[in-house]
Design brief:
Layout lengths: L18 E2 L5 E2 L21 H6 L14 H9 L5 E7 L6 H10 L5 E5 L17 E4 L2 H10 L3 E5 L6 E2 L9 E5 L8 H6 L2 E4 L11 H16 L6
Parallel strand pairs: 3-4, 3-8, 4-5, 6-8, 6-9, 7-9
Antiparallel strand pairs: 1-2
């Protein structure tokens, strides 16, 4: 979603190129962000002089306009939530970028990539610059890390022993793990999980997109531990 602060200037079709309509006319596109700071510059180490001078066109909320990148990350680190997200990446899953973007939106502590180190960052929409991402080469390495951190490993998938996410009391300190699109969680993660949760579905298909499932599970954690909603 593109954010447009109140002082965002909307350029005309003559100022920027746009898409061409069926009639051959250029269709104007709104300009993202804000222009150069007007008036006397604010004081503080978190302000970025280049952005104050040239404008801030990044995909950030208004609170962080003109802030230095490292200042934004430091502020986010001071209030991150206590859940982590992990996704298995044995087949270069294209959902990972979207999961990272959603984890940033819900302010997850970290995102963990299990398996292949490389992942498609396009779906992250640059949010990986603000979200901590950790790599684990094997499931064993990931499980040892989670146990050392005192985090409950919670799998999200459809197994015979899965219990409904909607009625499960998610622990506050946990890591929600998602499998590849298609094969789902590996048996190794399923065996290591203290519980495997399924998301109730009412249509004709058996499963849903992994990135969509991740968003639902993260929101369930937020409802339980940020808004104190009982299961």
């Amino acid at each position: 979603m593109t954010d447009l602060p109140p002082n965002t200037a909307l350029p005309t079709s003559a100022e920027i190129p746009g898409e061409t309509t069926a009639e051959g006319e250029a269709e104007a596109k709104p300009e993202v962000g804000v222009g150069p700071w007007e008036g006397e510059w604010p004081e503080g180490e978190h302000w970025d002089p280049d952005l104050l001078r040239d404008g801030d066109r990044r995909n950030v909320v208004d609170q962080y306009r003109y802030w230095k990148h490292e200042a934004i990350v430091a502020d986010l680190d001071s209030k991150r939530h206590e859940f982590h997200i992990a996704i298995e990446n044995w087949q270069h899953d294209l959902n990972i970028g979207t999961v990272v973007r959603t984890a940033n939106a819900f302010l997850a502590k970290e995102v963990h990539i299990i398996g292949r180190r490389r992942w498609n960052r396009r779906g992250a929409m640059v949010t990986d610059r603000y979200q901590h991402v950790r790599h684990h080469p094997t499931v064993e390495d990931f499980v040892q890390w989670a146990q050392g951190e005192g985090l409950a490993v919670i799998g999200i998938d459809i197994f015979p022993d899965s219990v409904p996410l909607e009625t499960y009391d998610l622990p506050k300190k946990c890591v929600l793990v998602f499998g590849q699109e298609g094969p789902g969680l590996t048996p190794e993660v399923h065996d290591a999980a203290v519980a495997t949760l399924s998301i109730e579905q009412f249509g004709s298909t058996r499963s849903m997109n992994a990135a969509s499932a991740a968003a639902i599970a993260m929101h369930a954690w937020v409802r339980r531990h940020v808004f104190q909603q009982p299961v």
